Amino acid sequence: MKQWLKSYLLMEKEVGSHSYRREVTGNFVILFSFAILFLLTLSNFFYSSRTVFYANLALLTGLCLIFILFRHHKRLVIHSIAHFMAGGIFVIVYVNQAQDYTPIWSFLYMYLIISLYGHKKGLIIASVFLICLLFFLFSWVGQTVTTLEFIRFSFVAIFTLFFAYLAELLISITFEEFYKTKSMLEKMTITDELTGLHNRRHFNDILSDKINSARRSNEMLALAIIDVDHFKKYNDTYGHPAGDQVLIALANLYKETMKRSDDVLFRLGGEEFALLYKPKGEAEAIDLLEQIRESVEAVVSDEKVQSTITISAGLYIIKPQKAQSFEQVYKSADELLYQAKELGRNRVVASP
């Protein structure tokens, strides 16, 4: 029973958004409404008047009908039950002529509505409900409700509404800060701190997905692995801070060139980069990489770069007709890069 309840209320699910909270609240509304109405109907059958029993039975029947008719639209069921609850409160107040009226149900309704709809929209709906309820109760003042009882209830109800709004507002602000922090941390785990490109971890995570996606859509995919020529010598000559400026300048050049939404750029580590993109043909894939290679030599015009820089690149073109694994694709691109270096550097070697 305990395990089922945790599963039903999604307590084992990872918190991901405001929709998660509303889903949990919605499941609670359904479970709570059925349980309470069933118990009230049963107790009123034995211990209360027939009129109250029939009122509760009608509410339970209506609740069951709503659940059956809209069972495939869970959100609609949740909202319908919540508003049905408001109608039930008015029915019970009318049947009892405001006698023995327990205000906890109206307070609970306001909490649930603000939680389901958010602090802005929920406040409006809850306020309309409270105004209607107070107007309804006021009609019984002097008959079955004393003026003092009405004033007390009004003050407590308004305070409850304000507190429910404030609590939801603070929760919303806290969740927004949590999402921002979570998003920032997730971005940090996949981003290279120096260049702002994706890091090796993200490369390992998404390359297989990109390969499979391109294959399903029957698109060509190109993987280029780029290495800065004689980078160790550059570092030894000008120092590591100057080497960092080279890496930053190259990363900016890649970003300026690779602007399409499905282009992905990585710094794999040290002076090694990777570009993943979808060319329309093999010639376009090679031309783009040659354009980058030629543009790299112009990076020297940046005052932060001390001398001419060149790159070597291995370009592996992944065709959709051939199923290949992450390891096969990466190994092939790396071997092509090695060939480019063996042939004298400052060149692109593409797969046949």
- Residue share in helices? 55-70%
Number of domains: 2
**With helices defined by DSSP (H or I, 4 residues minimum), what is the helix count?**
12
* Low-confidence regions: none
Q: For the CA atoms, what is the radius of gyration? A: 33 Å
Find the count of extended strands (DSSP E, 2+ residues): 5
How much of the sequence lies in strands comes to 5-15%
Largest sheet, spatial ordering of strands: 2-3-1-4-5
N-end to C-end Cα span = 63 Å
Could you characterize the architecture of this molecule?
This protein has 352 residues and is an alpha+beta fold. The protein folds into two domains: 2-186, no CATH class; 200-350, Reverse transcriptase/Diguanylate cyclase domain (Alpha-Beta Plaits), CATH 3.30.70.270. Helices cover 66% and strands 9% of the residues. It is built from twelve helices and five strands. The protein has a five-stranded mixed sheet, sandwiched between helices. The longest helix has 44 residues, at 147-190. The mean pLDDT is 83.
